[in-house]
Amino acid sequence: MLLYVNFYRLIVVVISISLFGCGGKSGGTAAAVVASTPSFLDSGTSLTYNSTNASTLAATTEFQNFNYNSTSSQNPLEVINAHKAYGYGLTGAGKIIAIMDTGLSTTHSEFSAKTISTFGTLDYADGTSANKDHGLFVASIAAGENDDTDGSTMQGVAPSANLHLSSYNKINGNSYFPTHWANATDNASTAVVQNNSWGINYQVDTLQSDISSNGWTNDYGVAQKWNSSGYTANAASATAYITALNNFQDHGVIVYALSNTSSYSDADFQAALPELFSQLNEAWITAVNVEITGSLGSETYTRKSAPCGSTGSYCLGGDGFQVSGAKGAQNGTSSYWETNYSGTSFVAPQISGAVALLSEAFPSHTPAQITDRLLASADNTFFNHDAVVTFGNGVSHGYDDEFGHGILDIYAALQPITSSSDNRSMSLYTGDSINDNSSFQFGNSRLLTSSSFGDSLQRGLISEVGYTYDDLDGGFKYDLHSHINPSNKGAPSISLSSELKSLSNSLNTSFIPNHNDHFNQVAGSLSISNNLNTSVTLDASSIPVQNFFDLNSDLHNLSIYQTSYLEANEGGIGVNADYQLSNSRFLIGATIPIEQDNGQTIGTRKSLVSSLELGDSSNQIITLMAGITEDKDSLLGSKGSSAFSLEGSNSITTFTALKAQKQFYDNFSLTGIATFGNTNMSSPNNSFVDSASDVKSSSIALIANMKNLSKDDSLSFYVNQPDRVENGSVAIKTSSLADSNQNITQTIKNIDLESSARQINMGFSYRKDLSKDFAFSLKHLITNNLNHSNTSNRLHSSYVGMDYKDLKLGISSNPNDSSIEKQISYAIAL
Q1: Among candidate residues 58, 85, 108, 538, the one with its CA nearest the CA of residue 325
Q2: Are 161 and 142 in contact (CB under 8 A)?
Q3: The pLDDT value given to residue 493
Q4: Which of 236, 389, 629, 681 could pair with 651 in a Cys bridge, judged by C-beta atoms 3.0 to 4.6 Å apart?
Q5: Which H/E stretch holds residue 599?
C-alpha cells in the first residue's frame, strides 16, 4: 500500500498562480446549483457576497500559512478561490467530511472546535513524519480551523466543517479489509463527502486486461489486486464495499486521489472504480495534482501525478505541490509540517472541502448536483480538450485525459452555469416543480405597470425574494421586485407645431357647453322617434364615454383625462341609444371586440355604459356616468410577459363618474371631472401574478376658462390628478427554493397597493389676438410626482409663440429631457 504523497525539500521555490473559470462533468445524473451577481442580482446562491471579507481573509497569516515556505504570489487556497467562498460567509458549518486514511488525530488544536466522530480502531498520528501524520495532514487541508491567535497555525478549505474519521489499514475484527471499508463508509451516514487520499498503484486499464484475459468478474478482479497488496479480500467483500460506495452517493460525494506516479498512462484502478462499476459514476471525483508556476498571465501547468486517464470526464485538478499541514501525535503537542509536502493526497481534501462549502450554500441539492457543479465550473482554459461533456439544456464542457476538467474553482461554482453568456436566459418556474412545463426566461419576465399603479407594486415587493435557475437546474435567490417595470409615461408636454397651428384658427369666445351630437366612428344610425336615436360605432368607445370626455368638442380637450378603463379605442363594435328628455338626456352604449377574417381583433374591451345629462346647456350641465368594463390579459392598462404574463385573466371594473360644467357671468366657466373605479382580476395562466382584488382607482380635474379679459383674448387654468390606484391588493406567488426532489412550494403574497406619492398636474395658457393678422400665445405646465412616485422631480414645460400674417414663430421646452424646440414657418399663397 502506498500513500499518495511525495515529499520535496527545497531551499527556495517561486510559484505564481493565476485563476480562470469554466466547467463540466460526465456520467450519472446531470444537475447542478447556481449563484451569481449579474445586474439584477446582488449575491450568489441565497447569500450576499462581500469582497472585502474575501480579501481580508486571504491576507490573514493562517490563510498564507497554507503554503508556508512558498514564495508564490498566490497559494493553493487562492487558486481554488476558497477566500471568495468565505466572502459569501461559507465555511462548511454544519457539514461533515468523512476522512478514510491512516495517521489520524482527534486532539490536534486545528480541530478543537469540531465535533469528530470515529469508526472502529483508528491508526493514530505520531508526529514523527508527514507520512505517519498523513490523515491528520489531509484532514487539516480539508477542514483546518481559522482560529489563529499567534500567527503560527493554518486553515483548511472548510474551516467549520466537522469530521468523521476511519482507518483503511485496520480490519476491526472482520475477515476482509473491504468489509471494514464498507462498514466505515456506511457509518458516515450523514457526511456530505468521503475523502480517500489512498489507493493501490495499479493502472485500471491493466486490471481490465487481467480481468478479461482470466475471465474474472470485476468484483473478483479488484479483490485479487487488494489481496496481492496485503489487504485480504474476496469477491463478496469487494461487492459489499462497492455497494457501500454506491449507497454513500445518496447523501455524499466520493473523492479519490489519483496515484502520484506521474509516469502512469492511466488512472489507478481504485480511483477509477466507476470504470469497473458504472453505478458509482453518479457523484465521484478523482483528484489530479498540478503545479502552477510563472507570473500572472504567463502560468505554466505541470502535472505532478498520474493523469486523469479514463477518469477524465469526472476528474478535477488542484495545486497540491509544496503545501503545509497539521503535525502531532494523538494527545501530543500540536504543530505543523511546513517544509513543502506534495501529492494528490493534498488535492483531494481541497475538493472535499469545496464539496462541504457547496453543500452549505445549496442545502437542498443532491451529491450528483454538487459534483456536476464543481466539474462544470473548473478552469479548463490552459489545455486542449479531447472530448466534451454535455450536461443538458445546451451546457457543455471540455476535458482531456491528462488534466480532466481542469483546476477547481469554488467561486465559479457559485455562479450561474448557462449555455448563453447572458444570465437573463436563466429560468423561472411558476408551477410546483422544475420538472414541469411552466418554465420562463428570467430576462423576459416582466410586469409593465401602468401609470395608475405608480410605484405601488414595486414598493410592495421590496425585500420579497424569488429563485431563478440556471441550465443545470440550480437555483439562487434574487429580489422579486426587479420584475416590476413601473410606467415611464412622460409628463404632460406641449406640442409646438400644434400650438402654432392653432394660432391660425379664430379665437373661440363661446362658453355654451352644447350637447355633443357628433360622435366618432359612427358606422350607421337610426332615428326611432323624435326623442330616440340609435347608432352603431366601430373601433371607438361607446357614445356615453365619447360624450363624457367631449371627444369632438371645440371648447375643451377633455380626452387627456381619460382613465385606463375608459379610452377612445376601447370598443370593437358598439350599439348605442340616445334618448332626449325635456331638460335632460340619457345615453347608453355597449361595445364588444370583434375578430376580423385576418385574425386581427378590433377593440380591446367589453363595456356597458350609461350616462345621464342634467341641466340647461346654455348655463350648466351635470353628467353622471356609470358602467362596467371587462379587459382580457391586462389590469388597468398593465401588461405582463413570460412568468408575469396576464394572459388568460379577466379584469372587471365597475365605475362611476361625474362631470359638471358651469358658466359664470359672460366670460368665466368651470369644468370639473371626477372618476372612481373598482377592479377585480381573475388568475392568469401559468403566472406568478395570481389575482387582483378591490383595486380602487380615482381621478379628478378642474378647468377654469376666462374670455375677453381685455377683448379678444382667452385665459385658462387647470389642475388635475391623473388616474391613481388608491388601495386594493395584487396577489403574487412567491416560490421556495426547489428541494432535492426538485419540488417547489408556492406561497401567495398579497401586495397592498400604495404609491409613494400623488401626481398633480397644473398649468395655464393665454392667447391674445391683437389684430386679425397678429396673435400670440403662451403656456406653462407643471408636474409634481410624475407617475405617482416621490422620486420624480418637479417638471416644467413652457411655450411662447406668435403668428403675424403667414409668419409663425415659436419656442417650447420639453419637461422630460429639458430640450428646447424652436420653429419658424412661413407660408406663401400662389
Answers
A1: 108
A2: yes
A3: 85
A4: 681
A5: none
User: Within the chain, which residues score under 70 in pLDDT?
Assistant: 1-46, 68-74, 148-151, 295-296, 392, 421-422, 509-517, 551-557, 568-569, 571, 617-618, 818, 825-830
Closest CA to 39 of 609, 516, 455, 422: 422
CB atoms within 10 A of CB 97: 32
| Cell digits of residue 438 | 411552466
**DSSP for 470-527?**
-TTS-EEEEEGGGGEE---PPPP---HHHHHHHTTSPP------PPP---TTEEEEEE
Q: Which residue has the cell 462498514?
A: 183
CB atoms < 10 A from the CB of 204, how many? 23
Q: Which residue has the cell 495534482?
A: 289
Q: Which helix (H) or strand (E) holds 368?
A: helix 367-375
What grid cell was written down for 578?
A: 340616445
Residue 159: count other Cβ atoms within 10 Å of its Cβ: 28
SS3 content of the chain, % helix, strand, coil (to 5): 20, 35, 45
- Cα–Cα distance measured from residue 786 to residue 758, given in angstroms and rounded to the nearest whole number: 8
Give the integer Cα–Cα distance in Å for 567 and 559.
8
For helices 367-375 and 348-361, the axis angle rounded to 10 degrees is 120
Residue 654 forms beta bridges with which residues? 628, 678
Query: Amino acid identity, residue 207?
Result: L
**d(C-alpha 101, C-alpha 169), whole Å:** 8
Instruction: State the angle between helix axes of 177-187 and 218-228 in degrees (0 to 180), rounded to the nearest 10.
Output: 110
Using H for helix, E for strand and C for coil, what is the string for 10-79?
CCCCCCCCCCCCCCCCCCCCCCCCCCCCCCCCCCCCCCCCCHHHHHHHHCCHHHHHHHCCCCCCCCHHHH
Handedness of CA 201, 202, 204, 207 (dihedral sign): negative
Lookup: cell for 224: 485479487
pTM (two decimals): 0.80
Question: For residue 780, what is its C-alpha cell?
Answer: 406653462
Residue 244 exposure: Cα atoms within 13 Å on the Cβ side: 19
Region class of 92: left (phi > 0), else alpha (psi between -120 and 50), else beta: left
Phi, psi of 806 (to 5 degrees): -105, 10
Q: Can you tell me the distance from the alpha carbon of 314 to that of 255, in angstroms, rounded to the nearest whole number?
A: 10
**pLDDT confidence of residue 417:** 80
Using CB atoms within 10 Å of the CB of residue 518, give its burial: 0 to 12 exposed, 13 to 18 middle, 19+ buried: exposed
Grid cell 398633480 is found at 760
Nearest by Cα to 549 from 560, 538, 537:
560
- Facing residues of 53 across strands? none
> 583 with 615: CB under 8 angstroms?
yes
Q: How far is it, in rounded angstroms, from Cα 483 to Cα 198? A: 51
Q: In 3-state terms, what secondary structure has residue 658?
A: strand
C-beta atoms surrounding 398 within 10 Å: 18
The CB density around residue 611, as the number of other CB atoms within 10 Å, is 22
Please give the grid coordinates belonging to residue 233: 479480500
Q: Which helix or strand (DSSP H or E) is residue 110 part of?
A: none
How many whole angstroms separate alpha carbon 607 and alpha carbon 654? 10
Dihedral angle sign, alpha carbons of residues 318, 320, 322, 323: positive
Question: What is the pLDDT at residue 167?
Answer: 98
C-alpha separations of 685 from 500, 540, 689, 734 in Å: 49, 29, 9, 16
Q: How many residues does the chain have?
A: 830
Instruction: Please tell me the distance from the alpha carbon of residue 483 to that of residue 443, in angstroms, as a whole number.
Output: 9
* SS3 at position 139: helix
Position 4 scores a pLDDT of: 40
Name the pairing type of β-strands 601-602 and 300-303: unpaired
Residue 550 DSSP label: T
Instruction: Find all residues with CB under 8 Å of 794, minimum gap 6, and list them.
Output: 782, 783, 784
List, for residues 438-456, the tens digit of each pLDDT value.
Answer: 899 998 999 999 999 999 9
Nearest to 606 by CA among 573, 576, 582: 573
Q: How far apart are CA 588 and CA 746, in angstroms?
A: 44
